[in-house]
Amino acid sequence: MRIVMKYGGTSVSNAERFLNTANIAIDTYNKKNEVIVIVSAMSGVTDMLLGAADISLKGGDIAPILNELRLKHFDACKYIKNEELLKLTKEGIDTLLVDLEKSLIGVHYLGELSLRSKDRIVSFGERLSSLILSKTIEAQGVASDKIDAFSLIVTDSNFGEASVLFNESYKKISETLLPLLKKGTIPVVTGFIAKSKDGDITTLGRGGSDYTASIVGAGIATSEIWIMTDVDGIMTTNPKICSNAYRIPEMSYLEAMELAYFGAKVLHPKTIEPAISKNIPVRVKNSMIDSPGTLILKDTHTNHKVVKAISIIENTAIVYVSGAGMIGVPGVAAKVFKALGDYNINVYMISQGSSEANISFAISENDIEKSEKALKEAFPTKELVKDISHIKGVNIISVVGKGMKGAVGTAAKLFTAIAKENVNILMISQGSSEVSISFVVSKEDGYKSIKAIHKAYLE
Ligand code: ADP
Ligand code: ASP
Ligand code: MG
Fold first, then answer.
1. Closest residue (by CA) to atom 2 of ligand 1?
2. Cα separation, 74 vs 80, whole angstroms
3. Comparing C-alpha atoms, which of 304, 316, 271 is closest to residue 400?
């Protein structure tokens, strides 16, 4: 088999974890598989780098944070038990840190932190971890190459969350990786980062290493894509919120996509797309203990419950657009969503009152200002749209499961379960595929709703 395995930050959070990760890759390789590893930055490092960029912008001292990064990565090399390789790794770390320092000083002198500079600065996290992991594998006696995904994935210049140009990327991925697999090495590729057509470093959005894994998997037609993480697989809900959550053995692509889109951090929302295009199974597995994980396929075989999983997106807002002038005027909704699209605002849910006098939609709290600006530009007079208001600090809860399709009474049971907890629902929407129902509640009611639905459907 040819397998892409991706390790998140917690799977490379210290020297022991690097060794454990290297050993899983080697064991899989020794069982006559071709293995490509995708790796995230060490846990916490992406946030440290963003913090360093801010400090630099404000004219603060970046020496302590650079020192902390150096120590953290040097410590993580403990199991490279080969003097020559250890020396090379430490030199490599220092070279990267000098380059990082230059980027940070640039931010300081320009007094400006663009999304472009941010992408360049955060890229060092994955460049450092991939170096250590590749050398840890080599020190265990198996050949490995560290590959910067710059040479594999081509994107547009939408810094912070760039869009992938698939044809060009797939060509580069196969041209670069196939000869290495043929040579018998384990390539270790940086997750999360890519390069624009103009040659600038870009990123695929927070948590984007999962997406890298499926782009690479689709690019060289792997047999499976493994997402190795700190939980046993995709669970019925986030186990950090509900202690009764348990592993789901199988899910369909559509169910996994809906769940990821509606906030289940265990998978980056775009991960499933490339896998679907080449019909590659995705497995989500625990990198710490051997567990069968969750297998994500085009179609699932096992009999399943009506509701399979529950997710939450926190820190969202509802924006209300209203005005009697909107009634019967064609194209108002189109104009609203075009304006938001032009500002790159992601809309999670939409609802329109039957009177047509109001439209409401849910977005990230961080996008409120941008959305008000976009709407004011699109509707400069009060003729059509009279009022634009919002409430923030709300949560979107989504209930996912393909068994809900055509199952009578699902919504009734769902809302009865949360009504018993005195939860007030601010907005409701059902996906057209009937694989999910989402609703918005206040911050205080978020976890309470999840627990009530879990109890009603999944326990
Ligand atoms: P990694 O560093 O491996 O990418 P993440 O922190 O991005 O890991 O994702 C794993 C986390 O996702 C889990 O620790 C868990 O708290 C969270 N999570 C949210 N929803 C779910 C779910 N339905 N199933 C499993 N984990 C979930
Ligand atoms: N290191 C990146 C992040 O923290 C990407 C990832 O972990 O997938 O968002
Ligand atoms: Mg992740």
1. 8
2. 10
3. 304
Tokens coding 430: 């059902």
What spacing in Å lies between the alpha carbon of 210 and ligand 3's midpoint? 7
The tokens of 91 are what? 């030199």
> Of all atoms in ligand 2, which is nearest to the CA of residue 126?
1
pLDDT of residue 193: 98
Nearest protein Cα to ligand 2, atom 7 = 207
Euclidean distance between CA atoms 305 and 457, whole angstroms: 8
Q: Would you state the pLDDT for residue 396?
A: 96
pLDDT band at 301 (very low <50, low <70, confident <90, very high): low
> Measured between alpha carbons, how far is residue 328 from residues 228, 357, 375, 384 in Å?
52, 9, 19, 11
Cβ-contact 18, 11 below 8 angstroms: no
Cβ atoms of 302 and 243 closer than 8 Å: no
Cβ of 251 closer than 6 Å to ligand 1, yes or no, is: no
* Adjacency order of strands within the sheet including 2-7: 144-147, 186-190, 34-39, 2-7, 224-229, 282-286, 294-297, 250-252
Residue 226 is given by DSSP the state: E
User: In this structure, is the dihedral angle defined by the CA atoms of residues 225, 304, 270 and 366, taken in order, positive or negative?
Assistant: negative
Is the whole-model pTM more than 0.90? Answer: yes
The per-residue pLDDT for range 135-174, each reduced to its tens digit, is 999 999 999 999 999 999 999 999 999 999 999 999 999 9
**How big is the chain, counted in residues?**
459
Judged against a pLDDT cut of 90, whether residue 432 lies above it is answered with no
Query: Residue 8 CB: number of other CB atoms within 10 A?
Result: 23
Q: CA 90, 153, 192 angle in degrees (round to 5)?
A: 55
Say which DSSP state 81 is in. Answer: -
323 — phi, psi (to 5°)? 165, 135
User: What integer is the mean pLDDT of 239-258?
Assistant: 95
Find the range with the poorest average confidence among 190-204, 269-283, 378-392: 378-392
Domains and CATH numbers, the chain: 2-229 (3.40.1160.10), 309-457 (3.30.2130.10)
The SS3 assignment for 316 reads strand
